[in-house]
Amino acid sequence: MMLxxxxxxxxxVFVFGIMTxxxxxxxxxxxxxxxxxxxxxxxxxxxxxxxxxxxxSLFYSHYNKIKRKVDGWGxxxxxxxxxLVVVVCAIKSEGQLMTGPALTSLGWIFRFLYNTLxxxxxxxxxxxxxxxxxxSFRIKTLQxxxxxxxxxxxIIGKVPLGNVLWNKLFFWTNVSISxxxxxxxxxxxxxxxxxIMIGIAVGAIVTSLKIIFGIERQYxxxx
Amino acid sequence: xxxxxLIIGGWVAAGLTIFIFSFLYKDNPFFKIAEHLYLxxxxxxxxxxxxxxxxxxxxxxxxxxxxxxxxxxxxxxIWKPEFWKAVWTAGDWTIFIPTLLGLSLITxxxxxxxxxxxxxxxxxMGYGAGLVIPVSVSTDFMTQILGTIKPLFKVGTEMSWASFxxxxxxxLIAFGLVCVLIYFFFSAEQKGLVKKASNIGIYFLMxxxxxxxxxxxxxRFSLLYGRFDDLYKYSSVKYFYAAQIIAAALAVxxxxxxxxxxxxxxAAQDNSGS
Lengths: 223, 274
Known about the structure:
The complex is a heterodimer of chains A (223) and B (274). Chain A is mainly alpha-helical and 223 residues long. Among the domains of chain A are: 1-68; 71-136, no CATH class. In chain A, 78% of the residues lie in helices and 2% in strands. In chain A, strands 1-2 form a two-stranded antiparallel sheet. In chain A, helix 2 packs across helix 3 (73-92) and helix 3 (73-92) packs across helix 4. Chain A is extended and about 75 Å long. The model of chain A has no long low-confidence stretch (mean pLDDT 93). With 274 residues, chain B is mostly helical. Chain B has 8 helices and no strands. The model of chain B has no long low-confidence stretch (mean pLDDT 92).
């Protein structure tokens, strides 16, 4: 039983990990035509089923809320309503958003329901980011001041009022606010970003090697 | 889509936007309805994306071709090589491998056989890990180093402010990167020169975090402008003042709710007092 429960899955990780890694050292056309193309198709299919797992898990969780009539169980019904409305419209319009210049029912749902909700949900975060920063951020050190100034330049640099104020107050510098923000993003930010990216790359390589060689196996869960 | 549907869409969009924004005042049933609707609609949206882009063309269609192809084999005897040749050429048999690996994930719901899901997860992890190594080495590691190691002076250019700034910026990027890397280097004790370099690295990081924060804030605000722009559009006579009517109705709800809950809490206090 240990063989099929533990060793074969570990062998799958090892084999697919090493084979995928090896494609980097095989002529690109050969690797692309015979391996990566097939694997990309396979991973898409498996990922689609992983999405199905998430969907069923969500439905199960909300079904339990409705069944046990926990606080706010009525809202869970709207999860099913939202899902069904989109899926029924998608089936009706065969997954197409437009037919010629006209919106299909799925296109209507996307524009007036999904897109609206999505944009509104993220737009609300604008208030919370600013209010949280205002309440919790205190300039007590020089480092905090540098962070604040960089953020301030970026915020005022992207609104017309900020540009007008900058031109009135700092006209004698002969430098526009967009030049300052460009310099920050292209010079000191690049240095920091590269440092972070190199760190992430080293971490990702080490973790991947640990996964391939079966040292890291938490994703397999408990026996 | 008829004009009527566009007007209904305007009412739906204005209503949902105002419901979401109502959370800024306080948590309320309208926000919760919109929130749950978003969750369901989001899952529905991704479900149809998966269905029309993956399950239908990459799983269902190949299986259908395979089943149609297998109908030919009825004319052959099982012992004949033509039978097996027909079976092999009927379609793409490999499609069953990712399908079964994917289906294995669903066993997570059944505790006794949940270990079967490891087959699907290990495939994802193995392929992902194998892909990450060369990608990280080439794009995140080597490219970043190559982008930093540049000549400090442009050959054949005369001294000018532009060439001076080029040299200064190139040096600053290289110097900043070294300082940031020293900050992230935990194998050596942070004291003396290492500590000083590490402190300079923090300033570079702060500039980056500040820029990233500013960009994020402005990105969110651009979404907010978009929502206000839509609300303005739906407040026109063409949409029968949808935005104003919904906002006013919600304001009335909040006022009534305030008085009713105040009355209820007073009644509860009286009851507890007596």
